[in-house]
Write a structure and sequence with these properties.
Elements (H helix, E strand, L loop, with lengths): L16 E4 L3 E5 L6 E5 L1 H11 L5 E3 L7 E8 L2 E7 L20 E4 L9 H7 L4 E5 L5 E3 L4 E4 L5 H6 L4 E6 H4 L6 H8 L2 E5 L5 E5 L4 E4 L12 H12 L4 H16 L10 H8 L4
Parallel strand pairs: 1-4, 1-7, 2-5, 7-8, 8-11, 11-12
Antiparallel strand pairs: 2-3, 5-6, 6-10, 9-10, 12-13, 13-14
Helix pairs in contact: 1-6, 6-7, 7-8
């Protein structure tokens, strides 16, 4: 539904919704006592779908030893360390027989090699896809430290296709060469770059850009905020780009005010915070 149409919104037609990616155990070593919490883009995206009134199909893989991300801050910057990296990627072939064909897909890789993104894109060409691409820009060093690569990875470039909205953070694109972001967007549907408390910006396939203003929040835990933003944006696209951005910013604001992957408020509350009338 476009932004200038009837204000009565429903997002049930975004389903069937398929969310694919690994689950993690997040350990926050800066906190006293050290806190551990389940995590992963799939979990935060599923919470968002629940708030939007959609029951998603979640495809994940659990190893004997879970992916363990250690979160720390050094000189004001977040540092990640990954223990127990995935042994094999999650792929479209892992989908159980009988699952319906998805109308919307959210792909949530967390580290290179954990999700076979192309297998989903090749199986359902033309389907609306949200690619939470942070994992495609990360590399694990021998000591477990996780580093962000300084240019669009080959895997990310191969996944940039029509119908695919790519989500990255400002941290992940900060060292890209001039023009790299626009070139990536020209291959995809758009690239959305989240900028923390400054909101976000969307670079569209045709080269146009738009700002997404933040929604004021009292943050407790920012982990997963980008995943919630991305999921809300993709689901909200059925109401138009402007409304999608507002709902995404409001959903992310709700997320940072909770600890860990807690349930989000109902859609009506998110919409009210976004200034959107249901």
């Amino acid at each position: 539904m476009p932004d200038d149409a009837s204000p009565r919104l429903s997002f049930a037609d975004a389903g069937p919704l398929l969310i694919a990616g690994p689950l993690t155990l997040d350990r926050f070593v800066d906190e006293t006592p050290v806190r551990e919490s389940p995590g992963g883009g799939v979990l935060f995206a599923a919470r968002t779908a629940e708030a939007f009134g959609i029951r998603p199909l979640v495809l994940t893989k659990v190893n004997r030893e879970p992916l363990l991300f250690e979160h720390a801050h050094v000189d004001g910057e977040r540092r990640l360390r990954l223990q127990h990296p995935p042994r094999s990627p999650i792929a479209a072939l892992d989908i159980p027989n009988g699952w319906p064909e998805p109308r919307t897909i959210l792909l949530c890789p967390l580290i290179a090699g954990d999700l076979d993104v192309l297998s989903f894109l090749d199986r359902w060409p033309g389907t609306r896809v949200g690619l939470l691409a942070q994992g495609m820009q990360r590399r694990r060093l021998d000591d477990g430290a996780v580093r962000v690569v300084g240019a669009p990875s080959p895997a990310l470039l191969n996944a940039a296709r029509e119908g695919v909205t790519i989500f990255l953070s400002q941290e992940e694109v900060a060292r890209w060469s001039p023009g790299a972001l626009a070139r990536l967007a020209s291959r995809a549907e758009r690239v959305v770059v989240t900028e923390g408390t400054s909101g976000a910006r969307a670079v569209n396939r045709d080269g146009s850009e738009s700002r997404i203003e933040p929604v004021e929040a009292q943050p407790i835990d920012t982990t997963g905020a980008g995943d919630v933003f991305a999921a809300a944006f993709i689901l909200g696209l059925r109401a138009g780009l402007v409304t999608a951005g507002r709902l995404a910013a409001a959903a992310a604001a709700c997320e940072v005010e909770t600890l860990g992957p807690a349930p989000l408020p109902p859609l009506a509350q998110i919409a009210a915070r976004a200034g959107v009338v249901l």
